[in-house]
């Protein structure tokens, strides 16, 4: 059963975290509908209160980096006093040998850094750090054998108990160096390791990028590929699917933490992944001001060689097809020649099956063709090779799709391209928060096409004055199951082509102007 998932919403005056998706696993969602994102109205008061506490109780209690990191985690990094904090200085950016430092200030994920003699023990789900420091030198004593003991689940949906309960937990333990006598290294690495999980919602393209690949890039890119990835809840299919990307983030094969029983030794380890926001990279939090465009450049390097080989194969097949069309009608041949010589802008429609499908998609294709687009319909499946989807979208000028996990593929578009998201009833906030805003950050020209009640299949099922049609937000506020069962699982779209045509014409004009400028240059 396909399920749809989002973040727990915090009430008015707090930051609203959300995560929209169609789930391919049988996980329960306990959320309660969509709310509009807003910055905390009482943020200024919060800052004043924080500063007052600092003055009264001392800077060592409240004016610590962790206090400000907590403020950042609630989405206020660009406002007021917090804007003056050096956001690039992580709490654990500089630690001494023989130390574990854990940053638990973010609502999205915990991250621990271990530096020194780091050794794995998969049988006990533990990572040990051996140190020459005496017990007196370590702050946190937990037993006579352990100098420090931390626990962490290295997955980026920390706030969501239902999924975090399924993630394997790691014990991070500091011991004195005399204990390593019975813990020999089977494999000694001279580069750091990053530990993370591919469990949870892995299997859904939105979560694979939002919860996994983008945070992995954020956490590891500064190592310049000199890093080993150690994966909990390891999946061979995930490695095969994303191997092209992983090879551009690390020079070394990934390690299956549970499956590889050998002791791996590292000079340093980061356990957990840092995450910024939905499908994006915040340059204010990155060394060298790296952004989501830099992540997309990694995708370019990962997929373009395969795309080029696919194009050569398509050209060969096209030539064979042309030879077979010697007896075809002259009009068909003329149209193919016209498409090639005029270089009509390419428009890709990401087609859906089942819920939230465009029922008059064939008429949409016809209209787009008449406007002047060269139309390609792509139907992503779980088994579809990502390089094929990347090739289609990377070479397109415009993409159209209905709100859902497949919209994650906007990351495959070139900055400056047009992304038109069709927004069904009841999905307005999620559509913009999870795809619209991230697309703008990538440099796409984003167009959100909010359908009217008459364009929804729900129009034939409910009375015209029913809140389902008239006030979807009030329905969503009743609870998550209402949103899911009504708007996500049982709604299709029949576009008002006259209304939608206006967006397509504007997209066409913009694209032609851009192509002319490029040709002139």
From TrEMBL:
User: Per the record's keyword annotation, is Nuclease included, yes or no?
Assistant: no
Compartmental location: Golgi apparatus membrane
Which InterPro entries does the protein's record reference?
Answer: Glyco_transf_61_cat, Glycosyltransferase_61
Q: Name one GO molecular function term.
A: pentosyltransferase activity
Glycosyltransferase 61 catalytic domain: which residues? Answer: 313-420
**A Gene Ontology cellular-component term:** Golgi membrane
For this UniProt entry, which segments traverse the membrane? 42-62
Its main localization is Golgi
Q: Which UniProt keywords apply?
A: Glycoprotein, Glycosyltransferase, Membrane, Transferase, Transmembrane, Transmembrane helix
Topology of the protein relative to the lipid bilayer: Single-pass type II membrane protein
Which protein, by its recorded name, is this? Glycosyltransferase 61 catalytic domain-containing protein
- Name the Pfam families for this protein: Glyco_transf_61 (PF04577)
């Amino acid at each position: 059963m396909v399920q749809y998932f989002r973040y727990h919403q915090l009430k008015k005056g707090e930051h609203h975290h959300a995560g929209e998706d169609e789930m391919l696993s049988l996980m329960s969602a306990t959320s309660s509908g969509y709310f509009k994102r807003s910055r905390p109205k009482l943020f200024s008061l919060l800052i004043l209160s924080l500063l007052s506490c600092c003055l009264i109780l001392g800077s060592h209690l409240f004016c610590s980096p962790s206090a400000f990191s907590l403020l950042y985690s609630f989405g206020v990094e660009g406002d007021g006093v917090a804007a003056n904090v050096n956001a690039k200085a992580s709490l654990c950016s500089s630690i001494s040998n023989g130390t574990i430092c854990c940053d638990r200030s973010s609502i999205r994920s915990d991250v621990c850094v271990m530096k020194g003699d780091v050794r794995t023990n998969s049988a006990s789900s533990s990572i040990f750090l051996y140190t020459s420091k005496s017990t007196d030198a370590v702050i946190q004593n937990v037993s006579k054998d352990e100098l420090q003991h931390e626990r962490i689940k290295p997955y980026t949906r920390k706030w969501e108990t239902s999924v975090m309960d399924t993630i394997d937990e790691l014990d991070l333990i500091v011991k004195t160096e005399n204990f390593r006598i019975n813990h020999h290294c089977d494999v000694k690495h001279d580069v750091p390791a990053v530990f993370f999980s591919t469990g949870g919602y892995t299997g859904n393209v939105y979560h694979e990028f939002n919860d996994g690949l983008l945070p992995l890039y954020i956490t590891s890119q500064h190592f310049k590929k000199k890093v080993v990835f150690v994966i909990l809840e390891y999946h061979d299919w995930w490695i095969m699917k994303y191997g092209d990307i992983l090879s551009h983030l690390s020079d070394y094969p990934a390690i299956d933490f549970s499956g590889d029983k050998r002791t791996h030794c590292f000079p340093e380890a980061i356990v957990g992944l840092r995450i910024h926001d939905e499908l994006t990279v915040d340059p204010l939090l990155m060394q060298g001001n790296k952004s989501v465009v830099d992540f997309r450049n990694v995708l370019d390097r990962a997929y373009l060689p395969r795309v080029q080989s696919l194009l050569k194969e398509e050209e060969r097949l096209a030539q064979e097809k042309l030879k077979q069309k010697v007896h075809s009608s002259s009009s068909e041949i003329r149209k193919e020649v016209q498409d090639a010589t005029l270089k009509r802008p390419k428009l890709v429609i990401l087609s859906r099956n089942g819920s939230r499908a465009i029922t008059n998609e064939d008429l949409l294709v016809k209209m787009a063709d008449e406007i002047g687009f060269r139309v390609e319909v792509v139907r992503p499946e779980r088994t579809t090779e990502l390089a094929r989807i990347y090739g289609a979208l990377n070479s397109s000028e415009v993409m159209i799709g209905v709100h859902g996990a497949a919209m994650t593929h906007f990351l495959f578009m070139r900055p400056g391209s047009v992304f038109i998201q069709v927004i069904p009833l009841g999905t307005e906030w999620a559509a913009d928060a999870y795809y619209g805003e991230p697309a703008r950050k990538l440099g796409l020209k984003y167009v959100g096409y909010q359908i009217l009640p008459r364009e929804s299949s729900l129009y034939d099922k409910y009375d015209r004055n029913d809140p389902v049609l008239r006030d979807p937000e009030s329905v969503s506020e009743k609870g998550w199951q209402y949103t899911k069962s009504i708007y996500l699982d049982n709604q299709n779209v029949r576009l008002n082509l006259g209304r939608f045509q206006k967006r397509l014409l504007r997209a066409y004009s913009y694209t032609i102007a851009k192509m002319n400028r490029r040709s002139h240059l």
